[in-house]
Design brief:
Distance between the termini: 42 Å
Shape: elongated
Number of strands: 21
Largest sheet: 15 strands, mixed
Structural class: alpha/beta
CATH superfamily of the largest domain: Zn peptidases
Number of domains: 2
Length: 546
């Protein structure tokens, strides 16, 4: 299909004539201003195709009590997948031959503590009160005892500084501080600057170093155990889930207990002043110090391990251009939520039923256009991913096991929570937060801006796109797994609300009119990406996650 190129030039006395001729446009241009926009013909086809009634019908099913919150691996999310597949079939979308249908199967390993215990000097301590251990980050070990604990500074093993230098820790327990040795002027002995090294507060890296040197268990002193628990509640309290089948081999890392300062004091006892002196000496001179402590310890860490099966649900619409159809626009939303806790059902109407039904409706629209001979040049993959609430796992699985080559994937359009209005925009529902559009491709950003000016006139809010955004939303939804691999991604989001991650995130609170408007914008963006002559360019450096 050919692109329709519209060029407006408004200047001097001719301004009125142009405005009259283009009265259908809502854009008014100032004197001597020129705007050139490329609009694929596909974008002109039925701009009202995304319909609020269809969105409401789908969401009333996906966010119903019968699906019990769609937790990954649960019967409820399997019912959701079955419903989505049944709708794709109704739209006339063909199954993907390489996977034998519409579902990409994903295996998950689910872990929790069956028994977790810590006793020091005969005192039994409480998990989640006195100490913390994350099941997914530790190996199961039977009941185990030790009479001595070695204070080992910061537990670092680096060519520039090593706490393990000249000391045998094989099958021993080591006690360490978080962080790293720092000079009085605030510079790191390892990095040589005020920028922390990779060791700073990287407990996983320290656990690997302990394992490499033969240590059995690492005790990390946590300054405020309650604050740490609150900040990492979901990770610590939830049942940990990871991709793939369980590995028979233990993780190559020592087990870790993050302990309160009260436990640390009980361990150190009368050697407290001596230990603090050694710690201060480490920071002053940048050389390791250690101290042998006598403190009988008993520990037990036994895990429950289950294997669950989930699926990413896919609808593939092949492009019409013989050459460009090999390229792909990927449209995503996660359809999992938090499930059921006791008698409470977390229906997740907004998070992310709203994004899921929008993807379903977009799949219907583009499938219909193809059936009417108005198909796009490039192919489009609509994908409902699982496991987002467990750590973006479904999208991670896809990028590691792509159905279509990632190098042919030109962009990812991700939709997560677009059904509600946040407090900032209480008086203006016609808005959408746009995240990531300019992180890899300025063209993607410009396309979204242009399509909005032409068709939807929403307020595009870039607050959460700032690299300094403390919420870090850019890293918290499925688009990031694509962006991390150099695929330009744009994330549509309406912000949070008091019902976020609560049982009262229900269908009756969804604003379907604004969902329809946002859906139309996304429709035009997808159409532009799928029909332009050249794929968008990656013209911004890919940055790793800070």
């Amino acid at each position: 299909m050919n692109k329709l190129r519209l060029t407006f030039s408004v200047s001097g006395v001719f301004a009125c004539c142009f405005i009259l001729l283009l009265a259908f446009s809502t854009n008014v241009f100032s004197q001597s201003q020129t705007l050139t926009i490329s609009v694929p013909e596909a974008d002109k086809a039925d701009i009202h195709a995304v319909h609020k009634d269809n969105l409401k019908r789908h969401l009333s099913i996906l966010a119903s009590d019968s699906l019990e919150g769609r937790e990954t691996g649960s019967p409820g999310i399997k019912k959701a997948a079955e419903y989505i597949v049944s709708e794709f079939k109704k739209y006339g979308i063909k199954p993907i031959s390489s996977i034998g249908g519409y579902e990409q199967k994903v295996a998950f390993t689910w872990t929790s503590w069956k028994e977790i215990a810590l006793k020091i000097n005969g005192i039994e301590y409480k998990h989640l009160w006195d100490f913390i251990a994350v099941s997914a980050e530790n190996n199961s070990i039977p009941e185990w005892k030790s009479d001595q604990i070695i204070f080992l500074g910061y537990g670092i093993d680096d060519p520039k500084y090593s706490d393990y230098s000249g000391i045998d820790v094989k099958n021993k327990v080591v006690l360490i501080y978080k962080g790293e040795p720092v000079r009085n002027d605030g510079t790191s002995w390892i990095s040589g600057s005020a920028v922390p090294s990779d060791w700073n507060n990287n407990i996983g890296k320290k656990a690997e170093a302990a394992y490499k040197n033969g240590a059995k268990l690492v005790l990390v002193i946590e300054d405020d155990i309650k604050k740490h628990l609150e900040a990492n509640r979901r990770k610590i309290l939830g049942n940990a889930m990871s991709l793939g089948l369980p590995d028979d081999k233990p993780m190559a890392r020592a087990n870790v207990f993050q302990i309160s300062t009260n436990i640390a004091k009980d361990i150190i006892g009368k050697s407290f002043k001596k230990l603090v002196k050694k710690r201060d000496k480490i920071n002053k001179k940048g050389k390791p110090e250690n101290l042998m402590l006598t403190a009988p310890l008993e520990a037990k860490m036994e895990k429950n391990i289950k294997v669950l099966e989930g699926s990413n649900v896919l609808a593939y619409i092949e492009g019409e251009d013989e050459k460009l159809k090999e390229e792909l626009v990927i449209v995503t939303a996660h359809y999992d939520h938090l499930g059921k806790k006791g008698e409470d059902i977390y229906n997740g109407a907004d998070d992310n039923g709203s994004g899921s039904v929008t993807v379903m409706e977009l799949a219907r629209v583009f499938s219909r256009m193809k059936s009417e001979g108005k198909g796009s040049k490039r192919s489009i993959l609509f994908m409902l991913v699982t496991g987002e609430e467990k750590g973006l796992l479904g999208s991670e699985y896809y990028v590691n096991h792509p159905i279509f080559p990632l190098e042919q994937s030109i962009a990812n359009v991700n939709i997560d929570m677009i059904g509600r209005i946040d407090e900032k925009h209480a008086d203006n529902p016609d808005y959408i937060y746009v995240i990531g559009s300019d992180r890899l491709s300025t063209e993607l950003h410009n396309i979204n801006e242009e399509m909005n000016k032409l068709y939807t006139h929403l307020e595009l809010d870039y607050t959460y796109n700032a690299e300094s955004d403390p919420n870090r939303y850019y890293y918290r939804s499925d688009h990031y797994n694509f962006a991390e691999r150099g695929i330009p991604a744009i994330f549509y989001f309406s912000g949070t609300h008091p019902d976020y991650h609560r049982p009262v995130d229900s269908v009756d609170k969804i604003n379907f009119e604004r969902m329809e408007s946002i859906g139309k914008l996304i429709y035009h963006v997808i159409g532009n990406l799928a029909n332009r002559d050249e794929r968008i360019k990656v013209d911004v450096e890919v940055k790793s996650k800070p």
